[in-house]
Amino acid sequence: MQIFTTIPGLRTFLADYRPDHSIALVPTMGALHKGHASLIRRAVTEAEVTVVSIFVNPLQFSPTEDFSRYPRTFESDRQLCESLGVAAIFAPSAETLGIGDSEEITAVVPPISLTSGLCGAFRPGHFQGVATIVTRLFNIIAPTIAYFGEKDAQQLAIIRQLVRDLNLAIEIRACATVRETSGLAVSSRNQYLSATEREKATIIAQSLQLALESFRLGERQREKLLAIVQKNLDRVPEFRCQYLDLVHPQSLQPIEQIETGGLLAIAGSIGQTRLIDNIILRQRRAVIAIDGPAGAGKSTVTRLVAEKLGLTYLDTGAMYRAVTWLVVNSGLDLSAEAAIAELLSLAKIAIIPADNPENVTIVKINGQDVTLEIRSPAITAQVSRIAAQKAVRQQLVTLQRQLGMSGGIVVEGRDIGTNVFPEAELKIFLTATPEERARRRLKDLEAQGNGGISLAELTQEIEKRDYLDSNRSLAPLRKATDAIEVNTDHLSITEVTEKIIALYHLNQGNLGR
Ligand code: AMP
Question: 393 CB under 6 A from ligand 1?
C-alpha cells in the first residue's frame, strides 16, 4: 500500500491504472472504525484500485466545534487500510488542498433546499465545507466510484446532487449504517462518550427501531411516527434532542406521509458529544438481484423465481437488444460509439415488463413496438458489440434503476447486486464449478446434436470466460459483499429456485435496512 500526501504523487500513481481499471474513493476524516471498514471492504471488492482519503476538513467545523480535538489516529488507520487491501491512502495537508490560510477559495455551494434543514440548520457552512472538499478530492482523484455512508444521510443526498449538477462521471454508492450490538451507530465521535453516556446513547437507535416496527405494521403518518420516537427519547433526559424529522430521502423536504420512502433522522447531544442517526423507511416490494458466472443457470432461475413469487422479471437483455435494433435500423456503424451514445440519448425506449409468465417483455422504441424484431438472429448476432459500449451500459443502467425503483422485481446479470441495485433487499450469487457448468453445456449440445467437443475443452473454455468476465473493465463479474452464494452443483433448477424463495421469505422482515 502506498501513502501519498501530495497531488502529483497520487496522480502519477493512479495514471498507471487509467483508463482500463476502476478506481474507488472512500473519503474519510480518519479515526477509522468498522463503519469506515465496511465502505472500504465494498470498495476493494467492487473496484480494482481503492484510495482512502484521510483529511480532517477544517471547512466543515464551525469555530465552536471539535476540530482541534477530533481524533487523529493515522498509524492504526494505516494498518486497517493495509489489512483491507487498499492500494493507496491520500492524506493531504490543508495547504495541498488549497485551503491553507486563505479564506479566498472557490467554494462549492449546494442548493439551500438541501442544506437548510436537518444538520444544516444547526451547522451553518458545514455542507458547503463538505461539498468544497469532496469536489476537490473528486477532481484530484477522478474516481470511477465513491463510497459514502447512509449514516450521514444528508451528506449523501447533497453529494449525489453535486455529482448530478456538476456532471461528474462518478458513481456514488451508499453503504448501510454499521452499528454496535447495542444498536448505537458507530462513529469516530463515540470515543468521546463515557461508559454511562454510551449506554444512554443507545436510546437514539432504539427509538428509530420502534418507529421501524410501527412502519412495518403499516404506520405511514409523520405525526404518529415522530410521536413514537419522541416519547421514547423522553425516557432519557440526558439526550438533548436537536432535531427529529421525517423527510424525503432525496429532496430532504419534510413529508407528512410516507409514499415510497422516508428518512427519519435524529441529532442531539449527550454530555459534550453530538450524535446523529437515521433510518430509511422504505415502502416497496423487494428487489432480488441475481449475479453469477455464465452458465450457472441464472436466467432460468430468475424467471422461475419471479413467476413463483408473483414479482416482475426485469429483462435487461431485452434492453440491450432494443438498443442494438435502434442502431442497426439507423444505419450507423456499430463501432461509432459517440454517435450511438447521441442516438440513444435522444431515443425513447419503453420497457413494459411481462405481468404474467406467458407474456414477454414488450419493448417500444420511439413508440414503435419492436418486441418481436429484437429477437431476430440479425440482432442476436450484434448485441454483445453494443452491450460492450460504456455509454450504452450507463444509459441502460439508469433505465434499469428507474424501472426497479419501486421494487417488486427479479433481475439477473454480472453486476446487478454490486452496481445496478446495490441496495437490493436480496442479493444472490449463483455459482457452479466450471466442471459442472461444462457438463451441463455438453448435455445441451448433445441434445441439439452438436456433440464432438470434450468435457475438458468445454471446462477450459468456461474458465477462460470466467476470467474475462471477472476482469473486464466494464461491468465486471463481482460478488457483492452482502450477497448470499448459492452453489448449484448438486441442485436441480427447482431446488435452486426453492432455495432462493426460502431466502426471500427469510428476508421479508428486512424492509427498512
Ligand atoms: P467520516 O470519517 O466521519 O467523515 O466518515 C467517512 C465516511 O464513512 C462517510 O461517508 C460516513 O457516512 C461513513 N460512515 C461513518 N460512520 C459510519 C457507520 N457507522 N456506518 C457506515 N458508514 C459510516
Answer: no
Q: What is the whole-number distance in angstroms between the Cα of residue 68 and the centre of ligand 1?
A: 19
DSSP one-letter code for 116? S
Ligand 1 pocket mutation, candidates 151, 189, 192, criterion most atoms within 8 A of CB: 151
- Ligand 1 touching residue 60 (CB < 6 A): no
Alpha-helix residue ranges (DSSP H) falling in 47-125: 74-84, 112-115, 118-122
Contacts of 314 (CB under 8 A, 6+ apart): 353, 400, 403, 404, 409, 410, 411
What is the Å distance from ligand 1's center to 178 Cα? Answer: 9
Establish whether 505 is a catalytic residue: no
Ligand 1: atom nearest CA of 149 is 12
- Cβ 149 under 6 angstroms from ligand 1: yes
Distance 147 CA to ligand 1 centre (A): 9
Catalytic choice (36, 126, 248, 505):
36
Per-residue pLDDT of the chain (513 residues; tens, 9 = 90+): 999 999 999 999 999 999 889 999 999 999 999 999 999 999 999 899 999 999 999 999 988 898 999 999 999 999 999 999 999 999 999 999 998 765 688 999 999 999 999 999 999 999 999 999 999 999 999 999 999 999 999 999 999 999 999 999 999 999 999 999 999 999 999 999 999 999 999 999 999 999 999 999 999 999 999 999 999 999 999 999 999 999 999 999 999 999 989 999 999 999 999 999 999 998 888 999 999 998 888 989 999 999 999 999 999 999 999 999 999 999 999 999 999 999 999 999 999 887 666 668 899 999 999 999 999 999 999 999 999 999 999 999 999 999 998 899 999 998 899 989 988 999 999 999 999 999 988 988 888 887 788 999 999 999 998 888 888 877 888 899 899 999 999 999 999 999 999 999 987 754 333
Count of Cβ atoms closer than 10 Å to residue 276 Cβ: 21
Q: Residue 420 carries which DSSP code?
A: I
Model-level pTM? 0.90
> Measured in angstroms, how far is the CA atom of residue 149 from the centroid of ligand 1?
5
186: Cβ below 6 Å to ligand 1? yes
Q: Is ligand 1 within 6 A of the CB of residue 152? A: yes
Nearest to 419 by CA among 19, 154, 22: 22
Collapsed DSSP state (helix, strand, coil) of residue 274: strand
**How far does residue 27's CA lie from ligand 1's centre (Å)?**
9
CB crowding 486-495: b at 16 or more within 10 Å, else e: bebeebeeee
**341 grid coordinates:** 451514445
The one-letter code for the residue type at 34 is: K
